[in-house]
Amino acid sequence: MASSSSSAPQTLPFPTLTYLIDFCGLSRESAISASQKLHLKSTEKPSAVLGLFREYGFGKTDISKIITKIPTLLTCDPHKILKPKLDFFRSVGFSGDALSRLIALSPLLLRRSLEDHLIPCFTFLRTLLHSNDNVVAVFSHAPHALNSNLVKTIMPSLQVLRKHNLPEERIAKLVTVQPGILMQAPGRVNEIVEEVNATGIQTSDPIFIYAFGTLSGLKRSTWERKMAVYKSFGWSEMEVLMAFRKQPMCMKMSEEKIKEGLEFYFNKLKLRPDDIIRYPKLLMPSLEKTIVPRCTVLSVLQKEEKLGKKLKFGAILTLPARLFLKRFVMRYHKDIPDVLKAYSGEIEFDGLEIDRG
What we know:
Layout: H1 16-22, H2 28-35, H3 44-55, H4 60-69, H5 78-92, H6 97-105, H7 114-129, H8 132-141, H9 150-163, H10 168-177, H11 186-198, H12 208-216, H13 220-232, H14 237-246, H15 255-268, H16 273-278, H17 287-303, H18 313-317, H19 321-330, H20 338-343
Helix pairs in contact: 1-2, 3-5, 4-6, 9-11, 10-12, 11-12, 13-15
């Protein structure tokens, strides 16, 4: 009589490593690492888990990322543990690619308690942000933030902002543009607020939330190094702070980008610190892709005497691409074809005369 085991290979012992590579899509290196945390006895449960992920629209790459990060999910009961959480995420607005991306980036969410963690966090933030869509948008940008402890981290950190008199609608805006605050310890949040205040920006200033976002990701030593770059070009600390109060992103860029920008504006355009302070957004765009082509267009137009003598070059160089193209390229390209060549980088920039009046 033939053995019945030949018709049920899924119950036979098999190498975990092979399963992770062949069925979960892991690289050999990742599979070796994952297999040290996982010892499968059969394919029944892991195959059901993989089937559930595919049923909810997860692709091979998503599944591979999830199992690489938390291989023990393969041993979870797919219907009692995983499915209720996936259904919850779907019900609040995560669907299709948004759901698979959320879990692929932060599969630990599937280890969190639905009743004790996920639902309370989501409910609390929906009250703050006023809609499911807004909460989904926040966690789509920062999936790991949903892992934060509501009672020990999220609520106390937001309470710190209230104690510093940040209005509720501004707290909501801060969470929206800087969701990382949900992962910051209350003590650290208080430190950041004090650091922002020390630059001359108060919680009542509209720019506060952006300054908070910049400083939340900067160590003091990094701030000092960037300050030193500005000072090496003749800026005073007060001038750096003036620029920061207008555009906090001027301290979020790398030291190299700051240096390259200042070298171009001071050496090529002969600008002064007060020119950049007036328009600190000049430091934001790519020199190669945006600023130099625009300067070249303006140089071509200047030689053709198409520009006035007292233009606000800082304002012009920071115009949205659509407006710059309309006002300075498409307006003149028929009579002066070189503006198109300049804009596309085919003409080398050879200087621009700035009349200070």
